[in-house]
Amino acid sequence: MKEDTKIKGFEAPIYFKYSYTAGATTTLFLKKLLEGKIVGQRCPICKGVYVPPRGSCPRDGVATEEEVEVAHTGTVESFTINYIPIPDGDVDPPFVSANIVLDGADLSFMHLISGIPHDEVRIGMRVKALWKPKEDWEPSLTNILYFEPLDEPDRDIDDLLNKYKNA
Amino acid sequence: MRKVGIIGYEQTPMLRDAGAQNEVELIMSVVHKVLKNLSITQSDIDFTCSGSCDYLQGVSFAFVDGLNAISAVPPIKESHVEMDAAWALYESWLKIQSGQAEIALIYGFGKSSPGEIREILSLQLDPYYIAPLWPDSVSLAALQARLLLDQGIISEKEMAVVVQDSRSKAIDNTNSQLSGDFTIEELLQEPYFVSPLKKHDCSPITDGAAAMVIASEEKAKELYEYPAYITGIDHRIETGQIGARDLTKSPSVEISAAALKLASKNIQVAELHAPFSHQQLILTEALKLSDNVLINKSGGALAGNIVMTAGLDRIGSIFQQLKSNEVHCGLAHATSGPCLQQNMLVLLEDN
User: Fold this and answer.
1) Exposed e or buried b per residue across B152-177, where buried means at least 16 C-beta atoms within 10 angstroms of its C-beta
2) pTM of this structure
3) For residue B67, what are the contacts with CB-CB under 8 A and spacing of at least 6?
4) Considering only the top CATH level, what class is B4-115+205-223?
5) C-alpha distance from A99 to closest chain B C-alpha (Å)
6) Domain A24-165: assigned CATH number
7) Do A58 and B72 touch (CB under 8 A)?
8) How large is the ipTM?
9) Per-domain residue ranges of chain B
10) Domain boundaries in chain A?
C-alpha cells in the first residue's frame, strides 16, 4: 500500500442527549443559590459540614439531612494558576482556581479567585464571594462570579481543617 | 476451593423513572439495608466491588461517585466492573478464594431513564466495524429473534408464553415493574415494535440498584442463618463479531453448564437473565433443564431490568428462594453484551 493511501483514522461522532437528574440534595443546593444562599449539609456522625452537599458523607457512608447555611466568606486551602483554557469555558487564562473552605464548612470546594494580582494569592488568605447582579441569578454556582480578597489577617489552614480531619 | 456463601441481598423497587433520586441515593438505600440486616457496618467489609455503566450517566468515572454512598474513609479495598454486578460478585468470590477477604459487599446500580438506552448500549459493540453503524440493542435482538423464527426453532406463540409467564409470576414480586395476567391471544395481537419483537418481548427501561453480601463459610455461618453457598460458578464470552456467531444457540452457556456438571445436579429453581423473550428460549435449550424446574419465579428481566444489576438480581432471587425449606439447589444466570454474548452461571445450594 502506498504511504499516502494509508487510513490513519476515521470519524465516528457520538452524540447523546440526557435529561440529567441532579438528585434531591443538589436540587436543594441549587434552589438556595437562587435565593443568594449557600447551603450545605451536616453529617450526623462526624458532624462535618459538606458544601456543596452530596446527600451523603463518604467518610461515614450515611445520608446527610441536616441543612446548614454557611457564610459567603472563607479561607484558601490551596490554589493553582491555570494557563490552559477550559474547553467552552468563558474564563480566559491565566486565571486562579482555588479550594476554599467557607466559614461554617469543614471541607473545601472549588471556585475562582480574582481581584488580586495572581502572584499575591496565598494559602490561608481570607476571601469573600462576589455575586452576579441578582437579575442574572440561575440555579448555578456561577451566580458567584469569583472570590475576592477580604481585608483580614491570614488564617492557619491546617488549624482550621485539623479538627475535622482528625475527628 | 473455599466455600463462599451469600448472606444478604436487597434491591430497590424497579421503576421506569426514579425521578429526582440520583444514583448515590439509590445505592445508599440498599447498602444500608443489607448491612443493617446482618448487624454489620462497612468497617466489617474486607472488599467492596460494584458493577455499573458510566454511559448511562453520560459521565466518565461516574462509578467513583457511587462510592459516596458507602463509607470509604479511611480508604477501603474497592473495585468496579463496567459490567453487570454479577461479575462484581465473581471478582469478590475470587478475592475470598485467594484469602484476601472474608466478607465482601457487592452493589450494582443503573438509571436508564435519563438517556437513550437502546443507542447507548451500541457503544459496547466493536468500535470499528459495528458501533459506527449504530445498531441499537433492540434491533440486534430482533435480528436474533428473526433467525430463530425463520429457522423454525421457536414460534411467536412460544415467545408469548414466556411473556405471559413472566408477567403473571411478577405479580408476587413486590419490586417488579411490569406484571399482570394476560392471555396468549392478547399478547399475540399486540403490534410489532421492532419486528419480530413486540414491546412486551423486550425488557423494560428500569432505574434501580441492588446490594449483596457474601462471606467465607465460617463468617457466613456466624452472620446469617441461611447462607446460600456458591457451589459452582463459571462465565464465558463469545466473539464480539456478531456475524461470526450462531445467534440461535448459546455455546458459552452450554460449555458452562457442562463445566458445572448441571446434568448431575438436582436443580429445583432457576433464574435466567433474558432481556428478550426469545433469549429465555435459547437459554432453556442450552441448559437442558428438566420440566420440573421452576424458572424465573421473580418474573425475570422482562418484569424489570436494571442495566448492570439485573444479572446480580437473578442470583439474589435464587438466594431468597433458597430460604424456603423446600428448595435446596438453584441455578442463576447472568448475561452481558448483545444477543447473550457473555454469560455466567452460578449454582447455589443451601449446604
Assistant:
1) eebebebbbbbbbbbbebbeebebbb
2) 0.90
3) A58, B78
4) alpha beta
5) 19
6) 2.40.50.840
7) yes
8) 0.77
9) 4-115+205-223
10) 24-165
